[in-house]
Write a structure and sequence with these properties.
- This protein has 798 residues and is an alpha+beta fold.
- Among the domains are: 140 residues, Aspartate Aminotransferase, domain 1; 238 residues, Type I PLP-dependent aspartate aminotransferase-like (Major domain) (Aspartate Aminotransferase, domain 2, 3-Layer(aba) Sandwich), CATH 3.40.640; 170 residues, Gcn5-related N-acetyltransferase (GNAT) (Aminopeptidase).
- It is built from 28 helices and 26 strands.
- Helix 2 runs antiparallel to helix 11, helix 4 packs parallel to helix 5 and helix 12 packs parallel to helix 14.
- The longest helix is centred in the middle third of the chain and has 21 residues.
- The chain is globular, with a radius of gyration of 31 Å.
Length: 798
Amino acid sequence: MAKIQHNNFLDSVNEVFTDAEREGVLHLYAEGDSFNGRTIGVKNKKLFHFGTTGYLGLEQDSRLKEAAVEAIMRYGTQFPLSKSYISNPLYRQLEEKVTAMYQNPIIITKNSTLGHMGVIPSAVDDRDAIILDHQVHWSVQSAAKVLKNRSVAIDMIRHNDLNMLEDKIKSKLDKHKKIWYMADGIYSMFGDYAPMNDLKTLCTKYPQLHLYIDDVHGMSWIGKNGTGYALNELQELSENVLLFGTLSKTFGASGAVLACSNKKMYHKIKKFGGPLTFSAQLEPASVAAASASADIHLSPEIYELQDELESRTQYFNSLLEETELPLVDKNNSPVFYIGTGMPKTGYNFVNRIMEEGYYVNLGLFPAVPVKNTGVRITISMHNQKEEIKGLVEAMKYHFPKALEETFTNPTRVFKAFKLEINRPLEKPKQQSFHVEIKDSIQQIDKGIWNKCFRHQGVFDWDGLKFQEEVFINNQQIEHNWIFKYVIIYDDNQHPIVAAYLTIALWKDDMLSKESASKGIEEKRKTNPYYLTTNVLSLGSLFTEGEHLYVNEKHPLRKEALDAFVQKLEQLEQEFSTKMTVLRDFKRNEPSYTYFQGQGFVRIQMPSACTIDLVTQDSMANYVSKLSSRNRQHVRKEILAVQPLLQVKVETSTSQKQLEQMTQLFLNVHQNNIGLNTFTFPKKLFQTMSEHSCWEFITVHLSEAHDLLIGVMFCYKNGNHTYVPAFVGLDYDYVNKYHTYRQLLFQTIKRALELKMTKIDLGMTASFEKRKLGAIIEEKFAYLQTGDNYTLELLDILE
């Protein structure tokens, strides 16, 4: 399996969003001639609004509205000058008020995203290091990644894992001047907190530690003068803390604010902070509205508003306690998250709630892992107790129905979020099929298995027996795989779904850029299992092809697939795997929409290459049907050098030659960091040489018979499919003798001699294979992870 394409992440996000849009829960338009905050018009219905981030409702306050209108009438719709030259007349007053709120120097920015882009590159020195919480807002991560161009060290910890943070700090103390930990004060999806007091203790223990806190979701509804959760916990803003707040969201206006007590750093950022210098300043209406809001924040009224909002959030919490809804994190913030697990369950649940008259948001990948989809609910001053109660009653009623309609259950949801289950487990429903799972291919009837997987690579019955011999009872943990075989039969013992699975240790960067893998491999010299994960995979890293058999015409196909996915979840929990990978699907396969809704993200894999030999009877005839350009390529680069080479087909080899073949394979493996996998156990090639289904196509120099310069390791799947599974090359001779192309040519020739009907050339090197007539077909995989930590860490390392 080779690298995924670089744009796959964006493609995956696009597919998830497109799916959500198609289900009617994303990219909607609000309707109506006015908006009061309590209700919102959606799809010709007036819904109670539980999706706002204006928790105190100040965006509807008449004082802010009147100030904004007056500012437009006096100063126009915008003040089109850079703030570095001259500020709108209203700015001075706003800055004085916000400074009074924080009692520290402040900088006002157009928004928090541009603020981070301006502040982080200015505050962080080239000798510093950055550690990101993996759930810190995208805008912070994006701004931090810009510093990779200056070779600033960037690392990441799992969410709120202070033990991991301390280990990272210790490892950087001697190498870096300052160590910046970047986190949110309140996290926008689950509403959970950064452990500010513990972070403060770490700062005392490690003076090099500095904190960069984005507290835009903690603003206004808590803290002195509404300055937010983080400052409320810290009590004072020390010089090693940069704190971002917002003038939008709960503040009710527009813009963002940086508070900085370090005067030297403050002046450095204010004088030249990238976007802070060159971006347009806030519009007069926004400045005036923010100034009016600041007056409220500086008055006792802010505490009355905070108390009123707290009474609503406590009421909502108390109602939720009386239900069995999976609240992911119980806290006092106005942000709540009810887990649904799979996206399709989330779509169903949200649509049901909207039909009942309540608007809520859906938490989706990449903001959360795909199988941690859920409903994000926010409580605001606009919400009255009667509609808060009505929302809880609607969720209590519709949650089990959404689960039932999407063929899932509460236990699966609770386990997806690692929540404690305080209810009896559901009894399995009576099914008109049965699921068998075996630990060895030898426990399965050979005829039944081969009927499902005939002509499929190296995983017919004999191929899997071979794999079990090789990948069990080895010394190194990465060479030991657990094999699982799933067959779902109907009552007549006919397979509906069948698959072979492996649980094995994978390198996390297998699908990353080569630049990231090179850096990670340096760390593996001292820590061989750095960034490795136990993966539950359809098929294995030894095979390519259609590893999942589905009888698409069977009336129980859908139910059987549901049972298969639940079996995957059970195996994931049993073996504590962190990722599930379903591989090698065609673009328009029926499984596409099915797995998308089951909590998997689709990514594009390298294309598969095959050759159809059904109508071919000789190599000469085969070559004659190539394009004129490719025939010329065969003549000049393959046939012309054949007299200089000795090509053989070996069914058994000497120990010396086997060692040479092994070394050639290792050459290719080590040279191809773009396909960064563990090596295979040494006994692999010995077992091949003893197995009747394997043979070797070897290339020697004619003038030096002992000099092996290339080998193709080929598997014979019955009398149908020829599989050149691996290649070995001596790179000193590859260009001169076009060894790889010669091996491809000889592979086709050998398959014709054996009267095979198909050659499965696998993935990668599709350009070379196309020259020899290979058919190229797009392939896709579906990924599911317990969290996004590894994906995001690898993204910052690339």
